[in-house]
Amino acid sequence: MFPISDLQINALVSLFVWPFARIMGVLLADPLFSSRSAPARFKAGFALLLTLLLVPLLPPQPAIPVVSAEGVAVLVQQLLIGLALGLVMRVVITAVEMAGFVMGTQMGLGFASFYDPINSAQVPTIARILTLFTFLLFLLMGGHQVVIEILLESFRTLPIGMTLPPDRLKALAEWGGISSTGGCGWRCRWWRPCW
Fold first, then answer.
1. Which of 48, 83, 134, 138 could cross-link 143 (Cys pair, CB 3.0–4.6 Å)?
2. Which residues partner with 76 through β-bridges?
């Protein structure tokens, strides 16, 4: 038998755990995989397959012990980065769903609704058709390949275990605040002198 040390096992496990957490975060928030119609085993298996395919393409990773406080912090960090990437895709799909909802209501087809397994709610038929059309268009245009490229690029721009400097965290928090208020903070600064 070949002797394997704890350090070798830790290095091998950490090689796959951090990318798996980020990829799983993307799949948890991704509109296509986050629906209840996609079984949890399929999501986990797909994340594992994608991890096995992407790990050889990733830049070198730091040797952070998996079973430690730092390891748990890095795991949560990777999951949050993945969730943020997945939520960006969800925003686009939600905009299309809302457009379909408004169109259906304005056309008088608000009563023509059925159960949507993605949102687990009743939605107008027009909204469901637009959502399916958007998913198909996304796949036909190679959007799935773009998502994988963005995921790979995220490992280069936000390496595993990297922390953002405080000034960038502050800027990120300010951008989040502006985007969540719909840019009202920017408009209010310009219009305040007029009041």
1. 138
2. none
Q: Is residue 42 part of a domain?
A: yes
Among 126, 64, 141, smallest CA distance to 96 is for: 126
Q: Look up the domain containing 191 and give its range.
A: 166-195
* Residues 175 and 88 grouped into a single domain: no
The verdict on 186 and 131 lying in the same domain is no
Report the alpha-carbon distance of residue 119 to residue 154 in Å, rounded: 28
Q: Model confidence over 33-57: pLDDT tens digits? A: 777 777 888 888 999 999 999 999 9
Q: What kind and span of H or E run contains 186?
A: helix 184-191
Cα gap 164→86, rounded to integer Å:
20
pLDDT at 12: 79
- Identify residue 72 by its one-letter amino acid code: V
- Measuring CA to CA, how many Å separate 27 from each of 102, 140, 147, 151, 174? 28, 19, 11, 11, 27
Q: Do residue 183 and residue 93 come from a single domain? A: no
Confidence of residue 23 (pLDDT cuts 50, 70, 90): very high
Residue 85 lies in a domain: yes
Domain contains 1:
no
pTM for the structure as a whole: 0.76
